[in-house]
């Protein structure tokens, strides 16, 4: 059994602010819990300039190690690699910028009880501007339309969870924001707690058009993975049925006009439109069926569940035995 209680993963891949002071604050907060712990700093090449200061912190007595990637792989990969290297029974992901007061991270450990596999933070009350809050509100509103369980702050990177959780889910791209949804889908119990947002996290954040487009694609990806991954025909079939229904009604309308009212059909743009919708509907349905076939073929190798506990007990003897 590992002698480390907590592994704190700090992915330094996108945004870094006051990292020296922040890591020391995390260090003091974890030390106050009485638990043994370690830090893993996973650094993308673009942030190599922070290695000397992090090494100085380690030399001063902060337990940890630095892992440098050969190129930028993103935060999801950093967390996945950190989970594979972690020695702690509990993993915390901590941001290299202040989202909540550093001493508040111990509240996650307090809430990670036997019945809870993961604890995440909802920054509440929020102290950032109306624009930032509006962005977050619309993001979660769209996500929660399709989610089985609703969370309020996917943008907070501070989480605590049991180590075996990362062995059951697969992270890639920018899916690190959606670890709670992926964990819930796999059968883990996720708890969200309210912690006040740090004033240092309140500055206005406006991203590029590519970033917003990427977030939209991330939303579509997580919705499909969590809701339709095991039943793709329902996703593609719904769109195909709508397109097919509209096309058949439209073609029937054109047919009735041509036969009973002597209205020409050959030179009508609607004929082309409804014909294209007919082809689209058939194609979407076919994609859904192919997806169902692939899932059925590989079903024996898939395990979309997690066994929490197996209890062994002796069989109760029958009367007269």
Using brief descriptors, characterize the structure shown:
321 residues, alpha/beta, Spore Coat Polysaccharide Biosynthesis Protein SpsA, Chain A, 2 domains, 12% strand, disordered C terminus
Detailed description of the structure:
There is one protein chain. The chain has 2 domains: 6-228, Spore Coat Polysaccharide Biosynthesis Protein SpsA, Chain A (Alpha-Beta Complex); 232-299. A 7-stranded mixed beta sheet has the order 3-2-1-4-6-5-7, with helices on both faces. The two termini are 41 Å apart. Helices cover 45% and strands 12% of the residues. Strand 2 (37-43), helix 2 and strand 3 (64-68) form a beta-alpha-beta unit. The chain is of the alpha/beta class and 321 residues long. The protein has helices spanning 19-32, 51-59, 75-85, 106-111, 130-146, 165-168, 179-185, 209-228, 232-260, 269-297, and strands at residues 6-12, 37-43, 64-68, 90-93, 118-123, 159-162, 190-195.
Low-confidence stretches: 315-321
Question: What percentage of amino acids are in beta strands?
Answer: 5-15%
- Averaged pLDDT, please? 86
Question: Main β-sheet, in a few words?
Answer: 7 strands, mixed
CATH secondary-structure class of the largest domain: Alpha Beta
Please identify, by name, the CATH architecture of the largest domain: Alpha-Beta Complex
Computed over alpha carbons, the radius of gyration is 26 Å
Q: Briefly note the CATH topology name of the largest domain.
A: Spore Coat Polysaccharide Biosynthesis Protein SpsA, Chain A
Portion of residues within helices? 40-55%
Strand arrangement within the widest β-sheet reads 3-2-1-4-6-5-7
Total beta strand runs? 7
Termini separation comes to: 41 Å
The assigned structural class equals alpha/beta
């Amino acid at each position: 059994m590992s002698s480390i209680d907590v592994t704190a993963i700090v992915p330094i891949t996108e945004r870094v602010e006051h990292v020296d002071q922040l890591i020391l604050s995390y260090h003091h907060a974890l030390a106050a819990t009485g638990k043994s712990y370690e830090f893993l700093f996973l650094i993308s090449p673009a942030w190599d300039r922070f290695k000397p200061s992090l090494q100085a912190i380690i030399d001063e007595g902060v337990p940890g190690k630095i892992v440098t990637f050969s190129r930028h792989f993103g935060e999801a990969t950093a967390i996945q690699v950190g989970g594979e290297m972690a020695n702690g029974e509990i993993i915390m992901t901590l941001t290299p910028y202040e989202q909540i007061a550093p001493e508040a991270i111990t509240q996650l450990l307090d809430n990670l009880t036997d019945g809870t596999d993961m604890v995440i933070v909802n920054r509440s009350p929020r102290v950032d501007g109306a624009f930032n809050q509006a962005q977050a509100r619309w993001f979660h509103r769209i996500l929660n339309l399709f989610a089985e369980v609703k969370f309020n702050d996917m943008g907070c990177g501070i989480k605590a969870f049991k180590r075996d959780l990362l062995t059951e889910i697969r992270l890639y791209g920018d899916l690190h924001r959606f670890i709670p949804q992926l964990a819930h889908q796999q059968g883990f119990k996720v708890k969200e707690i309210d912690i006040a947002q740090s004033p240092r996290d309140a500055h206005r954040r406006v991203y590029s058009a590519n970033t917003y487009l990427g977030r939209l694609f991330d939303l579509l990806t997580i919705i499909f993975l969590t809701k339709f991954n095991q039943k793709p025909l329902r996703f593609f079939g719904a769109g195909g049925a709508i397109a097919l229904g509209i096309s058949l009604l439209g073609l029937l309308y054109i047919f009735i006009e041509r036969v009973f009212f002597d209205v020409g059909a050959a030179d009508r743009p609607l004929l082309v439109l409804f014909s294209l919708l007919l082809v689209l509907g058939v194609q979407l349905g076919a994609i859904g069926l192919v997806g169902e076939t692939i899932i059925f073929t590989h079903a024996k190798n898939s395990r979309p569940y997690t066994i929490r506990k197996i209890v062994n007990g002796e069989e109760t003897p029958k009367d007269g035995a």
